[in-house]
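Please fill in the sequence for the structure shown.

STRUCTURE ENCODING:
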């Protein structure tokens, strides 16, 4: 990055907040229910591998017609953990688990490195924003966690009619914040969705790669939000 930044914008899920229980914990407990014992750390590692493998395809998800994608994702994970049971039955059970968790405001928690960074950026008078592929649940979760107060701009895909990596959602956020895209830094956890989308809009971008799965990509990477300070 050669420009000084006026604004920092963030993805929400996976970047500032995450599910509690996490995706790997949900998979692990369904595996145990089926009598398949595998270390939780292995499940977490394999899910991370699946997220990297299907990163490009995830950019085409529309929030509605996603069954085929997740069936493929689940199959990859189950094959890698050596599961020998009924894949379709397992996938259905995992889906039911997530349907009971994801829509609940209480199921989301902030990453421990999020609030200290936001406090620091706010004190340094950066304009802050969120750009999320989500429903109004995102706003309710942010309110519940006390995160909304940090952001002058919050753009939710379900409210504006287009999703990342469509460059328009990034351009809209910059326009609402009254900042130039080339003086805005965007931080997200999916290369094909967040980095590619931000680039389309002329924004600078950094990938937060908490699991260390994106060693092959052509962008700046950090493992923790604590590392972001050195770029600002």
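FILLED IN BY: designer on duty
SEQUENCE:
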């Amino acid at each position: 990055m050669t420009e000084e930044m006026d604004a920092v914008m963030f993805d929400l899920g996976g970047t500032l907040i995450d599910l509690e229980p996490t995706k790997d914990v949900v998979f692990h407990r369904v595996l145990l229910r089926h009598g398949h014992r595998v270390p939780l750390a292995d499940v977490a590692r394999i899910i991370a591998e699946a997220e990297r493998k299907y990163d490009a395809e995830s950019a085409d998800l529309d929030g509605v017609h996603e069954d085929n994608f997740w069936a493929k994702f689940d199959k990859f994970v189950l094959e890698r953990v050596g599961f020998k049971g009924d894949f379709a039955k397992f996938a259905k059970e995992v889906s039911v688990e997530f349907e009971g968790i994801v829509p609940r405001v209480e199921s989301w928690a902030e990453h421990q490195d999020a609030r200290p960074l936001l406090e620091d950026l706010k004190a340094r008078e950066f304009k802050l924003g969120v750009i999320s592929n989500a429903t109004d649940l995102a706003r309710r979760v942010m309110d519940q966690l006390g995160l909304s107060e940090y952001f002058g701009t919050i753009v939710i895909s379900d409210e504006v009619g287009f999703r990342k990596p469509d460059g328009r959602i990034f351009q809209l956020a910059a326009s609402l914040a009254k900042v130039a895209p080339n003086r805005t830094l965007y931080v997200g956890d999916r290369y094909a969705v967040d980095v590619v989308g931000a680039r389309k809009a002329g924004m600078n971008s950094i990938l937060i790669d908490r699991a260390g799965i994106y060693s092959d990509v052509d962008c700046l990477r950090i493992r923790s939000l604590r590392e972001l300070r050195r770029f600002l």
